[in-house]
């Protein structure tokens, strides 16, 4: 019923013709819908939006009109209005994966990560839009970590400015862990690396193995082996004291935080909303 066309970087759906559109929707609704497309092609976006609004007023089930109106609102960065349009489509067709991912993207754009994740969880790994949904989810993880770091830093500034020391050499820092020698290790999500900070404050690259993919949680065992929650690659890595990297546990969906207690490794598995306990020794 629809085909995609792109003008000025804006994606809209165009009906295959007035006659076919009229068969799918009311004649009056189709008339205003096609008027909206014509106004859009002339760059008269406000008038085009008004025409689409009239089309859905005449025919409340006019999905194409909601889609094009939502796409225009998104292009104009009126994200809340775009959300209203795509939410209506979602009501009319709850199984449309493209709309679900679009809603996740729009909520991400306005910083409502909880709502964005709500829609992302509706996309199965067999869906054509799973890759897009996973990309948005990874962006949310990075944004949340940056926000948490910024909030934590603000609290430190307020509490005791005089004792503050910032070590700023990382790209998307996430998990932290300290070994028995007092060396601090930092997971860098964005550049898939692990850094270490010596007690004197000097920073070194510890590991940039190709096996690393979105590292987040870190934890040391009693023998100073480092375990890494490899978020983007869905596994747990083990890095021994010599710096050798191994895949320790496979098929852990989006592992997040790690804690080791009494030789048990605890893993929060964000993708399955579970906590895994693994006996190390």
Keywords:
2 domains; about 280 residues; Methylamine Dehydrogenase, Chain H; four-stranded antiparallel β-sheet; about 40% helix; alpha+beta; disordered N terminus; 13 strands
Explain how this protein is built.
The protein is of the alpha+beta class and 281 residues long. It has two domains: 2-137, Alpha Horseshoe (Serine Threonine Protein Phosphatase 5, Tetratricopeptide repeat), CATH 1.25.40; 173-279, Methylamine Dehydrogenase, Chain H. The protein is built from eight helices and 13 strands. It has helices spanning 18-24, 27-41, 45-58, 63-75, 79-92, 97-109, 113-120, 130-159, and strands spanning 2-7, 10-15, 173-178, 184-188, 193-197, 203-207, 215-220, 226-230, 235-239, 245-249, 255-261, 264-269, 274-279. Strands 3-4-5-6 form a four-stranded antiparallel beta sheet. It has a four-stranded antiparallel beta sheet with strand order 7-8-9-10, with no helix packed on it. The longest helix is centred in the middle third of the chain and has 30 residues, at 130-159. Mean pLDDT is 87; it is low at 1-23.
Percent of residues in helices comes to: 40-55%
Largest sheet, in brief, is: 4 strands, antiparallel
Mean pLDDT: 87
Q: What is the CATH architecture term of the largest domain?
A: Alpha Horseshoe
Individual helix count: 8
Query: What is the CATH C-level name of the largest domain?
Result: Mainly Alpha
List the helices and strands and how they pair.
Elements: E1 2-7, E2 10-15, H1 18-24, H2 27-41, H3 45-58, H4 63-75, H5 79-92, H6 97-109, H7 113-120, H8 130-159, E3 173-178, E4 184-188, E5 193-197, E6 203-207, E7 215-220, E8 226-230, E9 235-239, E10 245-249, E11 255-261, E12 264-269, E13 274-279
Antiparallel strand pairs: 1-2, 3-4, 4-5, 5-6, 7-8, 8-9, 9-10, 11-12, 12-13
Helix pairs in contact: 1-2, 2-3, 3-4, 4-5, 5-6, 6-7, 6-8, 7-8
């Amino acid at each position: 019923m629809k085909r995609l066309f792109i003008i000025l970087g804006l994606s809209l759906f165009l009906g295959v013709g007035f006659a076919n559109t009229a068969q799918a929707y009311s004649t009056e609704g189709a008339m205003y819908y096609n008027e909206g497309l014509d106004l859009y092609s002339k760059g008269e976006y406000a008038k085009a939006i008004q025409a689409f609004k009239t089309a859905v007023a005449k025919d409340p089930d006019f999905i194409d009109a909601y889609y094009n109106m939502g796409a225009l609102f998104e292009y104009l960065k009126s994200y809340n209005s775009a959300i209203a349009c795509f939410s209506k489509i979602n009501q009319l067709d709850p199984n449309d994966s493209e709309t679900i991912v679009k809603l996740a993207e729009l909520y991400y754009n306005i910083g409502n990560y909880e709502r964005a994740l709500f829609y992302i969880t509706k996309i199965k790994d067999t869906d054509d839009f799973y890759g897009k949904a996973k990309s948005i989810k990874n962006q949310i993880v990075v944004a949340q970590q940056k926000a948490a770091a910024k909030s934590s830093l603000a609290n430190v500034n307020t509490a005791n400015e005089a004792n503050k020391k910032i070590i700023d050499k990382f790209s998307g820092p996430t998990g932290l862990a300290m070994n028995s020698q007092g060396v601090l290790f930092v997971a860098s999500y964005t550049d898939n690396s692990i850094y270490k900070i010596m007690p004197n404050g000097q920073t070194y690259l510890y590991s940039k193995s190709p096996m690393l993919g979105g590292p987040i949680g870190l934890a040391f065992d009693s023998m100073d082996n480092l375990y890494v929650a490899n978020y983007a690659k869905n596994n747990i890595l083990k890095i021994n004291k010599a710096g050798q990297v191994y895949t320790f546990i496979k098929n852990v969906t989006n592992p997040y935080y790690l804690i080791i207690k009494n030789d048990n490794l605890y893993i929060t598995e964000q993708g399955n909303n579970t906590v895994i306990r693994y006996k190390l020794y």
